[in-house]
């Protein structure tokens, strides 16, 4: 077996199942699950219709590069959303959701033969795929703590110059999971300067980019930041997805865009990996990327939930409206694992302990004493859950 498999930690939801073992939720309450970032809003009917109409395409092998019209549509969306002019033949590539692409990019770009063991950097707390991708590419994951008291900025100084010289890949997530932090143009400039100095690739995970609150100020993207700073896309790849934007997590559809040389090698890797997107999914994706009306409706539903629920929870837990995304990152008065377990037992609300999303660095796990609350259920359910969280916290 691949020895790197032994380095993988249990996935957060596996830890959650173990944490809840033996807990019997109070029979008075119906379960409300706010632990997983799985959109619960209805999938738009027109996307399902396009998927169904495309079923005849199951008789054909899809190409890894995807239909030209799909890549053109994705490039057009990038022009509309970010003001980018991308070559759809060399700078855009469809993927089966951002998760598999975030993982497989590391397998493509990490070169373990270059002297000391390479380092892959990610935020802390973080989306767990980054760590697994690093280990299975033969690299060493390193985590930069992001703490509320420094506005969730990266602790760049925690790595020495010798360690930075070993960095080959840097995962960044903006808007962030779980904090909702959006990187500013100054944040991007700092990261680009480090990439220029040490030569590492930046993987910009932007799967929450379309869930935000101010229509006049959508979150800045990595490629957009590069353009605003007068840079090329060298050593920069962004990842986008329809899952959160269009409420189709089961469709597994997204794209990567950026450095043409990296995408050329990524396409080669994916051709052998067997990652081609199914033809019906490609057609449904074209329809989804071409429509913004359903995305605006989606944002409006999240706005309504955050406006109603944030004050209720913020009154008893340390939290506030995030920059973007659909998570509340809430500080708990007791250990986050005890809070999550007690909340389930007494009020049948499921949230995710923040410590499951972080790693202890120099004695600090920045996810400890936080819980991630995903406002993905209906407004009524989120309000009900918020009231239950409030009641539980008031008893502590």
Give a written overview of the molecule.
By secondary structure, this protein is an alpha/beta fold. 40% of the residues lie in helices and 14% in strands. The protein has 2 domains: 9-42 and 294-394, Aspartate Aminotransferase, domain 1 (Alpha-Beta Complex), CATH 3.90.1150.10; 45-290, 3-Layer(aba) Sandwich (Aspartate Aminotransferase, domain 2), CATH 3.40.640. The termini are far apart. α12 packs parallel to α14. It has helices at residues 12-20, 45-53, 68-82, 98-109, 129-136, 161-164, 185-198, 222-228, 243-246, 260-273, 279-289, 293-314, 336-347, 379-394; strands at residues 32-33, 92-95, 119-124, 140-145, 167-173, 201-205, 236-241, 254-258, 327-331, 349-350, 352-353, 370-374. The mean pLDDT is 97. β6 (201-205), α8 and β7 form a beta-alpha-beta unit.
Architecture blueprint of SSEs:
Blueprint: H1 12-20, E1 32-33, H2 45-53, H3 68-82, E2 92-95, H4 98-109, E3 119-124, H5 129-136, E4 140-145, H6 161-164, E5 167-173, H7 185-198, E6 201-205, H8 222-228, E7 236-241, H9 243-246, E8 254-258, H10 260-273, H11 279-289, H12 293-314, E9 327-331, H13 336-347, E10 349-350, E11 352-353, E12 370-374, H14 379-394
Parallel strand pairs: 1-10, 3-4, 3-5, 5-6, 6-7
Antiparallel strand pairs: 2-8, 7-8, 9-12, 11-12
Helix pairs in contact: 2-11, 3-11, 4-5, 4-10, 7-8, 12-14, 13-14
């Amino acid at each position: 077996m691949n020895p790197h498999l032994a380095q993988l930690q249990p996935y957060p939801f596996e830890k959650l199942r173990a944490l809840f073992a033996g807990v019997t939720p109070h029979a008075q309450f119906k379960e409300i699950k706010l632990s997983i970032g799985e959109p619960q809003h209805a999938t738009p009917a027109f996307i399902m219709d396009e998927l169904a109409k495309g079923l005849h395409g199951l008789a054909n092998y899809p190409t890894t590069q995807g239909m030209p019209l799909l890549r053109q549509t994705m490039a057009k969306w990038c022009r509309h959303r970010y003001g980018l002019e991308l070559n759809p033949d060399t700078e855009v590539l469809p993927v089966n959701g951002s998760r598999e692409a975030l993982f497989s990019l590391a397998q493509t770009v990490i070169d373990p033969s270059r002297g000391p063991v390479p380092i892959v950097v990610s935020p802390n707390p973080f989306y767990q795929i980054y760590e697994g991708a690093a280990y299975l590419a033969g690299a060493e994951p390193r985590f930069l703590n992001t703490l509320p008291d420094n506005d969730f900025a990266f602790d760049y100084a925690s790595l020495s110059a010798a360690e930075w010289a070993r960095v080959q890949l840097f995962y960044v997530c903006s808007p962030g999971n779980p904090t909702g932090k959006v990187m500013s143009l100054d944040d991007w400039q700092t990261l680009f300067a480090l990439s220029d100095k040490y030569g590492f690739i930046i993987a910009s995970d932007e799967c929450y980019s379309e869930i935000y609150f101010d229509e006049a100020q959508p979150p800045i993207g990595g490629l957009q930041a590069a353009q605003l700073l007068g840079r090329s896309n060298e050593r920069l790849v962004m990842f986008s997805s329809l899952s959160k934007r269009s409420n189709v997590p089961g469709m597994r559809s997204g794209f990567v865009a950026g450095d043409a040389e990296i995408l050329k090698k990524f396409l080669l890797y994916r051709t052998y990996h067997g990652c081609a997107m199914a033809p019906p999914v490609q057609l449904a994706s074209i329809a989804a990327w071409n429509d913004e009306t359903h995305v605006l409706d989606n944002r409006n539903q999240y706005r309504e939930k955050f406006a109603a629920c944030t004050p209720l929870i913020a009154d008893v837990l340390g939290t506030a409206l995030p920059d973007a995304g659909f998570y509340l990152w809430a500080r708990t008065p007791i250990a986050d694992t005890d809070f999550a377990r007690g909340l389930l037992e007494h009020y049948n609300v499921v949230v995710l302990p923040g410590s499951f999303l972080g790693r202890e660095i120099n004695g600090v796990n920045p996810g400890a004493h936080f819980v991630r609350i995903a406002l993905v259920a209906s407004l009524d359910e989120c309000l009900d859950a918020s009231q239950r969280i409030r009641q539980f916290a008031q008893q502590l």
